Amino acid sequence: MTIKIALIQLRVVDSKEKNLKNAIDLIRIAKKEKDANVVVLPECFNAPYTADTLLNVAEEIPAGETCRALSNAARDFGVHVVGGSIVESCSGRLYNTCTVWGPEGDLVATYRKVHLCDSSLSGKMTVAETKLFTAGSKYATFTVGETRIGLGICWDMRFAEFATAYRTMGCDLLIYPAVCDVPTGEQHWELAKARALDNQAFVAFCSPARDTHAKLIPYGHSLVVDPWGRIIQRATEFQEIVVADLVLKELTDVRKRIPVFEQKRTDLYDLKVGCS
User: Fold this and answer.
1) Considering 31, 59, 67, 113, which one is annotated as catalytic?
2) How, if at all, do strands 93-101 and 80-82 pair?
3) H-run or E-run covering 224
4) For residue 19, what pLDDT is reported?
5) Is 117 annotated as catalytic?
6) For 35-80, what is each residue's pLDDT tens digit?
7) Annotated catalytic residue 88
8) Residue 218 near residue 9 (C-beta atoms within 8 A)
9) Whether residue 235 has pLDDT greater than 60
10) Whole-prediction pTM value?
11) CATH homologous superfamily, domain 2-262
12) What pairing do the DSSP bridges indicate for beta strands 223-225 and 93-101?
């Protein structure tokens, strides 16, 4: 089996309506012209990544405007849509949340960002996430055919144990919608190769396009990495659609030839304070 994944590296502007229209147009192109069966949007794709704008576009899931638009697009085009992330409002709290919509327009997965980021390599704190969001506490997966897919958002990429937990659950593909600024992206983006190698899985990072006039300038360069740690597709910094064929039989090959999950010494990894 092959999954054709399309990463939508769209340019985010200061209009929720325009961002949604752009996203839907690009989802249509990814399915109708590129024949993708999984389409991915970036983190916080419906508004610029600043505290004020994110607060203004918060909505409930699944009743909000963005959710309705993604559900309709998934149904109309017959494709799985990984809806990047949006600001979810729930019971007086805000979450950075990824929704996944099936080809019938049904909500098949919801993931709230677990690892919130207050770090900034640029020296400027655009959004102190721990002050704005409540952290999630659950993993989230969905399936396409027989392939199980795990979800993370941006800073989750920094935590190797998180990715390995998904691999232990049987995931063959890890998807991370993300919006890193340029200095952070330059330092962290090829972590996709490490996550793929560590877990012998396909890994995709999806970023917004670069906008040099934005308060947070996105890194761009959305990419897909195979289980050998090779980058098989990579975007520029501009708005574009990155399409990659994930040949799933490669998973069997790499796991047979390099059986690291059979070689793990899990009896040694649970450290106890005071042990020598």
Assistant:
1) 113
2) antiparallel
3) strand 223-225
4) 98
5) no
6) 999 999 999 999 999 999 999 999 999 999 999 999 999 999 999 9
7) no
8) no
9) yes
10) 0.96
11) Carbon-nitrogen hydrolase (3.60.110.10)
12) unpaired
Residue 57's nearest CA partner among 86, 95, 90 is 86
Token pair of 126, please? 């655009």
> Is 43 noted as a catalytic residue in this protein?
yes
Distance CA 234, CA 55 (A): 31
**More reliable by pLDDT, 271 or 129:** 129
Residue labelled with tokens 């007086």: 92
**What DSSP letter does each residue of 119-164 carry, written as one string?**
--TTS--S--HHHH-PPP----EEEETTEEEEE--GGGGG-HHHHH
Q: Do 222 and 9 touch, CB atoms closer than 8 A?
A: yes
* pLDDT for position 118: 85
* Catalytic hit among 16, 31, 43, 129: 43
Bridge partners, residue 144, by sequence: 147
Burial class for 75, CB neighbours closer than 10 Å (0-12, 13-18, 19+): middle
Can you state the angle between helices 160-168 and 191-199, rounded to 10 degrees? 40
Taken in order 68, 93, 139, 180, the sign of the CA dihedral is: positive
In angstroms, the Cα distances linking 15 to 25, 57, 179, 228 are 15, 10, 17, 40
Q: Could you read off the pLDDT of 174-231 as tens digits, one per residue?
A: 999 999 999 989 988 999 999 999 999 999 999 999 999 999 999 999 999 999 999 9
Q: Which of 154, 171, 180, 206 is catalytic?
A: 154
Question: Residue 193 corresponds to which tokens in the numbers above?
Answer: 């190769």
Task: List the chain domain ranges.
Answer: 2-262
Residue-wise pLDDT for 73-117, tens only, equals 999 999 999 999 999 999 999 999 999 999 999 999 999 999 999
